[in-house]
# Entry
Amino acid sequence: MHHFGKHPHISIEDRVFVETIGGDLTVKIENNTDDGGGLYSEPVDNADQTLDDAEIYYAIVGNIIVLKVRPYQENEFRYIVYNEKIQQAKRIDSIQHACVLLPDDHGLIFPNGYYLQSGEYKTFELGLENLLFERQVKAPNGEDFLYMFYNRLSGVHVLLQYNLIEQRVGTPLVCNGATFFRGGELVCFRSQDEPQKHHAVQIWQTPYVGDDYVAPSDTDSLLYKIGNKEIVRGMAECHELLNLIEKEDSYANLYVDLVKLAGDVIDSYFWIDKEETANLKEPLAEIRQAAAAAVDEFEKVVRVRQNTNEQTRQVERATRELIASINHKRFENINEFVQSLAALRRTRGDIIALRDLRYVDATLVDTLEQQVADYTDKLAQRCVQFLLQADALAPYDAAIEKHKATIDSVQKVADAKKLEEQISDSASELEMLIEIVSNLKIDDATQRTTIIDNISAIFAKVNQARSALKARTKELMSVEGVAEFNSQMKLLNQAVVNYLDICDAPQKCEEFLTKMMIQVEELEGRFAEFDEFVVQLTEKREEIYNAFESRKIALIEARNKRAAALASAADRILKGIKTRVESFTSINDIHGYFASDLMIEKVRDIVEQLKALDDSVKVDDIHSRLKTIREDAVR
# Structure
């Protein structure tokens, strides 16, 4: 599937991504078309080819993805083996003529080496080419496998023996012919370039015995009954588990694989817990338990590593782009020097910040920092030589003169602040130039003095421009400030009137007074530079406080009058209730009266109104009197 973008690529089942454009063959593990970088890259002959021009074939074997790629207008295919677990890619062109699967999907074997699922890779320097696969010989023990490769033209044979338990290939045997005998004897010979009367023949004892060959053994033992092939498969998986334990944390899904493999071994072999097999179930169970406990923590570590790697890649890419940009500049004016030196300083700060990240590649960070430091020193030296020219600081001089000429035409405070920022930027760049000159080892002291004097002269003009701009800003602020202050005061007065209108309780008076005081404080901070405004705000603060305090007192008085009127009404009603209940002759009549009479409900309504007025004293008094009347009537 083709994925298009700034850096398009071809997806290999969304597991790895390949492209041959931009001058190189790149293998990537992220589906990111915005970035052209990858984990493996090598140049191609034709840099102008498109995504469709290359021929790409692939085969997937477990964690291994074998790529067969021929870039545009190239005669030979390139063979690349990518491993998902370790996220590494290697070019192995020797698989072109022969590549065979190892038993139980352990990996690949080819004429001069092998590549395992775990990422283990080894080649042998045999000096032989164009070897084809001839045949595979299996040992009856189920442990050893022999792979025979040969060259049709020279008749040379290469014999590679793979051990299933150890998961490795022994030393290759190179010969011109070989044959096996029933007892496992391997007879091989080497031809010579010159004719000879006598020829040396090598005889090796191997496990590749005949099918009807029976080795002496104890037929009563459990191991014999289990069978050698079954034991070999179990030992091979145990050895694979040991290899995983030795892997670094960067190995993808390491602890998940440990849990799965340990569990599979325990569940697959009934004899794993027998005494004759050293009770391997016990250590396997401990391995599975420890790996399961580490899975969650490992996922956190993986996320941290990924984040660190991503930040490191971004800084590394930014550093590379900055250095490339500097290399292409001609540096014909001082601004280019200043901008490049400032960019190098910022980049060095970003690199130093990487040291605080967990799991960062300290060696890479040191290399990047040293690279930036070297470029900074070289560029600083060139900058000093440039500053010795008579017109080196002419751009700053012209900029300051332009700023000074602009000051009188500034009509708004906002424009004055923008101009102040521009002048400050120029001053900062001049300060950096002085710092560069001061830190460099310049043999000729007169050169250092000349440069600093020239920069100081520009600094004097900068300070003059700052003073003039400050005076102009103050003048503008006095005009704009009065207009803004008057509008703010009008808004403040309207807010006071509005809040006073909606204050219907003493608590709201306090709440709105607090809001108004905050607004006054904000205005004091905004107009702190104007002494006359501070006096007005102080007077306004007092005025607002008095207004809300008066409103609060009025509300309290009104509430007290209302509470007194309600209490008086309740008193009259309670007297009537007392007179009425004294005439009742039965308890049921009394209870019925208190449950349904309108006068009782009226008293309760008055109590609720007094509660709303927060007069708890009168509420308790009325409750007490009503209860007393009821109890006296019952008695």
